[in-house]
Amino acid sequence: MDKIGIIGLGYVGLPLAVEFGKSRPVVGFDIDRDRISALGRGEDSTRETDGEDLAAAQHLCFTDDVERLRDCSIYIVTVPTPIDEHRRPDLTPLIKASETVGSVLSEGDIVIYESTVYPGATEEDCVPVLERASGLEFNRHFYCGYSPERINPGDKTHRLPTIVKVTSGSTPEIAERVDALYREIITAGTFKAESIKVAEAAKVIENTQRDLNIALVNELAIIFGRLDIDTTAVLEAAGTKWNFLPFRPGLVGGHCIGVDPYYLTHKAEAVGYHPDVILAGRRINDGMGNYVAQQLVKQLIKKSIQINGAKVLVMGLAFKENCPDLRNTRVVDVVGELTSFGMQVDVFDPQADPDEAAEAYGIALVEQPSDNAYDAVVLAVAHEEFLAMGVRRIRALGRPTHVLCDLKAVLPVDASDLRL
């Protein structure tokens, strides 16, 4: 039975390693030594797995030693694919992972990529690296596949085995082998794409489509705000039609929806096409943090609360509810804009790692906010801990005169002073 090497043990790689490790030998590799040590103790900081899951993967071992990958014959690369400060694709983790795999690659091996990329990246960017590092020839000595990840962090219902998996391979025979491999662990079934490029394109448009739909309702929220109409009420009314899509306005962050469209637009511009609609959606969504902050300022002024020096509590820093993931969170845009007005902003997130928040964004999370201390309270992320508090307890954090902003529209309609 082929031994699998999983390169990258984050939100995508670890659940994959666990599922395969239940039935076949798997080496989970990551360059983060602390991560390897924690997993060895049965601890997963992403909360995508627990000690019971890790114990069930009896054939799985963890390492940061590249040499322990050498006897694998299938490699699955699951490293991040972020964007840089200019919103251009940053393939550095992917290239370095390819160099690592190439250094231990043998004849007949298969390298499967799961990281989100633009169409063509596997064969045009990764394969040459594998060839240089290994001295082997693509589709003669080694082969490739692409099977885009569909992990939804924090979602306890849609798990890896229960989500249909798109697969592909660099030859028809390899495509079948890759598909058969994933069929071992994916109970929902697989879909074999006709080529690697098709699979890459399918992945990148999944989140692009979602991004555009959210951009539309965000723009509607801005329009309805000027018309003094409650956006949620409008969406609920329109939602009574059978084919109306149930999207809601909000901050669009994370490692997928706020990033993937830039991979597609980068490739489109590389072939001479300017993608107006996709980039327009990105501009709207990227600007929502500033819009929220400005609307909050207006509400403070209406209540005669002085802006400069006002104290604000932002509840939640993670990019989505019930998840500790801080990657590309757009809550930081709200914090930054409020700070630019001279406000003192505290951020409270019981699910986030304080060290990560400090390192990534320079934000010192408060351990427990004080009652009767804030001129404004912003419910930015709908963590279950916050919902369990209820309106009265959340309101108690504010001073006698304060503004409550419900960004997620999860509180009763008349319970807050501002929502999108």
In short:
Helix content is 40%, strand content 14%. It has 420 residues and is an alpha/beta fold. The chain is globular and about 75 Å long.
Question: How many beta-strand segments?
Answer: 13
Order of helical and strand elements: EHEHHEEHEHEEHEHHHHHEHEHEHEE
| Uncertain runs | none
Distance between the termini: 53 Å
Note the beta-strand portion.
Answer: 5-15%
**Tally of DSSP helical segments:** 14
Radius of gyration: 23 Å
Widest β-sheet, arrangement of strands: 3-2-1-4-5-6
Q: What structural class should be given to the helix and strand makeup?
A: alpha/beta
From the spread of the alpha carbons, the general shape counts as globular
List the helices and strands and how they pair.
Layout: E1 4-7, H1 13-21, E2 26-29, H2 33-40, H3 51-56, E3 60-63, E4 74-77, H4 92-102, E5 110-113, H5 121-134, E6 143-146, E7 165-167, H6 172-183, E8 190-192, H7 196-226, H8 231-238, H9 260-270, H10 276-286, H11 288-302, E9 311-315, H12 331-340, E10 344-348, H13 354-361, E11 374-379, H14 384-395, E12 398-406, E13 418-419
Parallel strand pairs: 1-2, 1-4, 2-3, 4-5, 5-6, 7-8, 9-10, 9-11, 11-12, 12-13
Helix pairs in contact: 4-5, 7-9, 7-10, 11-12
